Amino acid sequence: MSERVFFVALVLFSAYLLKRSGVFTEESSKTLIDYVLFFSLPALVIQKVREVDISSETFTVVIFAWTTIIFSMLLSFLVGKLFRFEDKTLRSFILVSSFGNTAFMGYPFTFALFGEEGLKYAVLYDQLGSFLLVVSLGLFVATGRFSFKEVITFPPFIALVFAFIFKGIAFPQFIKVFLDVVGKSLIPVVLFAVGLRFSPSRIFNSLRGASLAILLKMVVAPAGVLALMKLLDMSELYHGVILLESAMPPMVMAGVLAIKYDLDDRLAISAITLGILISFLTVPIFMGVFVK
Question: What is the rounded CA–CA span in Å between residue 14 and residue 211?
């Protein structure tokens, strides 16, 4: 786990240093974001969704994911209105308060706590839960309007449909290698893009909004999930993974959408950066309560 934290920090810090030295500019991040949205993320989606097995447990995981995210969106909207956030800030706030980093942080957390068996449930939560909603409702929040055309022409969504259509068809080995290599490029590239937008002063400029987002995403939402599980006496493996994924820090993709659609990227990046660090305190607390 510590190696992955240092990896995140090193990529972000390297991008920041290269920006400060003049090699890159903040505007360079937009090209990298386009690379992610149009190339590496679709490849990763096709690869991972084809690996998912559909079962009754699948629906339980997905329903919990959708319910948690939609509840978080409604709550963050009300909180944002209460604090009178302007439109772009409100939309960024909703994104980072609702969508968790269920892949990059969720997968290693799950593997560390539940092993390979738990990892398959994390993939379900991420791909059929978080991802489906971020390319639909998340895109709606980011653009401020619902456009069916924009959703169905969104490259990751096209990749998702493609993955389900060709799920039972074997791909040639060279296609598998292509998807694997391109998909693996997503994490460093998207972190580098976020790092180019990072500035220490921005954390403090957006500290109130980022702190509120982290409170809703990493404390209120998982507390609600935990309370429901305790009430229903749910203790199975996949329920533990559901709680774990619900407690993840804000999704990097939320920052991608904030940058792509010129929202309040300062708030988004602050929440993402702080959330990663704080997750190593909050996640063990929630998981400790769950297993008691």
Answer: 25
